[in-house]
Amino acid sequence: MRIFDVDQAVPADMRDFSEALIPGEEVRAAFTSQTGAILFTERRILLVTHENLLEERVETGSYPYREVRHFALQESAGGGFRQLRIWLGTEEHPLQLRARTGADLHALQRLLAEKLV
Questions:
Q1: Digits of tens for pLDDT over the chain (117 positions)?
Q2: Using CB atoms within 10 A of its CB, is residue 29 exposed (0-12), middle (13-18) or buried (19+)?
Q3: Considering 61, 69, 84, 90, which has the largest number of Cβ atoms within 10 A of its Cβ?
Q4: Angle 70-71-76 (CA atoms, 0-180°, nearest 5)?
């Protein structure tokens, strides 16, 4: 998996990714980075990555919540970054979201806990 430096986004503003959503699927939390976006819907986690090498390619990965093995929230004492690591499926390394203090990773942590019950 990869490390993403993210900014929190308004879920309703994620219309650009509507092609990846099924009818009626609601985005509950969203984060954007320079290389794409991570959407947490009511059903799954969508990881949208843009690659610009010789041509623009977009890869969309979909992970149902049952693929979440565990997650951990880490906060810097100095008020710098917060980091949420999510271990998915058989991936050896976690998906890492690094966000500034203003991003509400606690709400995302609650959403993940709710989906794992």
A1: 678 889 999 998 887 778 889 998 999 999 998 888 999 999 999 998 887 655 578 888 999 999 999 999 988 776 677 899 999 989 899 999 999 767 888 889 999 999 988
A2: buried
A3: 84
A4: 155
Residue whose token pair is 């219309």: 15
- SS3 sequence, the chain? CCEEEEEEECHHHCHHHHHHCCCCCCEEEEEEECCEEEEEECCEEEEEEEEECCCEEEEEEEEEHHHEEEEEEEECCCCCEEEEEEEECCCCCCEEEEEECCCCHHHHHHHHHHHHC
Is the Cβ–Cβ distance between 85 and 2 less than 8 Å?
A: no
Q: What is the pTM of this model?
A: 0.87
Distance CA 75, CA 12 (A): 27
Q: How far apart are CA 107 and CA 35, in angstroms?
A: 23
d(CA 97, CA 26): 21
